[in-house]
Amino acid sequence: MKLATLSAFLAATATVFQTVSSISVNAIFDQHPLQLPLHDRKKPNIVFILTDDQDLHMSSLSYMPHLNSTLIQHGTLYNSHYVTTALCCPSRVSLWTGLLAHNTNVTDVNPPYGGYPKFVQRGFNDKWLPVWLNDAGYGTYYTGKLFNAHTVDNYDEPHVKGFTGSDFLLDPYTYQYRNATFQRNREKPMSHKGQYSTDVLAAKAYGFLDEAVERYEEESEPFFLAIAPVAPHSNVEFNSLDIINGPEFKTTAPLAADRHTHLFPDAKVPRTPNFNPDTPSGVNWIKKLEKQSENNVEYNDHFYRQRLRALQAVDEIVLNVTARLAEAGLLDDTYIIYTSDNGYHIGQHRLQPGKECGFEEDIAVPLIIRGPGVPKGEVVDGLVTTHVDLAPTLFSIAGIPLREEFDGTPIPLSYKRIKHQKKHGKREHAGVEYWGFALEEGEYGFSHHEGEDVKGYYTNNTYKALRLVGEDYSLYYSVWCNNEHELYDLDKDPYQLTNLYTNSTLIKDYELLGYPLKKVLGRLDALLFVLKSCTAETCQSPWSALHPSHHHHVSSLTEALDERFDEYYEEEVEKIRFDRCEQGYIVEAEGPQWDKSMGMRGGLRWSEWV
């Protein structure tokens, strides 16, 4: 599908962007026309831009004209891209390692279950993307937010490995837009109080890009540059990093650069059917949320506008990076990847600003790729990609053999491969998992005063989920640690308001794909059962784990619904359940686990076949 819809929207609202930036896109690229690709077989360069908490479903991309003109119109937007954990640190570790969170066991933003100390303790400082790219001959550079709990006190315990050059944002100042602290290479941290964080980061990114381009020209060293601003994350001021035992921090709306504070005065959170609905939705703590007041909604609209304004400085980085690559004659030899660590909700399902949920707003994020052979102006629907696919994708781009332990596979970048994978039913599933807390942000969200209960902070937010997208179906299925279930048919219910599986009861007479709901649910439950503890190839091809026999090849939900398999799914495969709720990944709490003896071989279970 071509980009007609988004382009038409941008054209219709062009006046909104007239004051966004004084930089003329056309003038820059007229002065430095795009160069033809080099023909000396050098490895391609990679620029990776990673925002923080950016939505896909609240129209933020429509307010970024430079992103549209330089990347979306010259690359491909993957419209079904999902994070596998809707929280920044676990998501980032999965992204940079190619492993799901249950395989990294980094599941939180702070110890004992997550954060930079857990990343180090688990041994990933020696086995993650920058180390691998560096070993393959790449110059590797990073500036911005890396992981949570990477602080002014522990940045050298040990230093982050794998980078030719680095300049990291450090806690507790990471989310303070006008009080950031950066730490360059092995130098001491430096405060930039009073300066706008994204602009400080931009200058550092351009410096690293200039260094990388010089080494590329002089030494033929290809480069990887990651740029990770905190926008549009909320502004957060910490007095203590001990969130569980003594939370002392405050979240407020993001801050914009002075030049952008006047923009979008009439913008509001899209009033979709799931925005502050009259009837509660969801399960667990979510179904107990009260309808938001008019004052609450008005504040959340302000919060939304501040997010859009904060993204304008990021939009300028996109423009300036592409312009500098064009000036150096490297733009057409460089892959530029743009995504976010997780999505975001504001008002949907009565939720205050935040993430951590399994709803589409939280797990679906932008993924835009521009580079050699990537279709221009293309929007790919119905082809599921995930964050654990990104490390394998970068390996593929760099010409590095894939690692056996990867839980993901390379994303198809050419039109031919995209078409092939869609035709053969590949990439229909995303496994989603979460442990621990959920935090409501903003004025009406989290608050804590001595002697009072904590408001807007929920500790029973552990769940496993499955997002499944095929030619004739779009489904979300989840099981929570209290063993409540959710099942949404997004073809008929795109805003996830009607749970088809409430109180362990399926809606009577509802059919999916022409089958009773119970039959389809048996397949979904088995698929999620595999994914919740899968590794490597089992994560990549979970249907093949359930059906390892070449006699009964199954690679999609449609094929799994064959009546020959009814008894297998209804009677033999274990049902997913939790034994108890925990704040992190503790196997003993997670109920039965998949093993290969549960797979079907030629109509028999594996154990019977052997």
Automatic annotation (TrEMBL):
Its EC number is 3.1.6.1. One of its GO terms (biological process) is phenol-containing compound metabolic process. Residues 44-400 form the Sulfatase N-terminal domain. Keywords: Glycoprotein, Hydrolase, Signal. The lineage of its organism: Eukaryota, Fungi, Dikarya, Ascomycota, Taphrinomycotina. Residues 1-22 form the signal peptide. It comes from Saitoella complicata (strain BCRC 22490 / CBS 7301 / JCM 7358 / NBRC 10748 / NRRL Y-17804). The keyword Transport does not apply. SUPFAM superfamilies: Alkaline phosphatase-like (SSF53649). This is Arylsulfatase. The modification 3-oxoalanine (Cys) is found at C88.
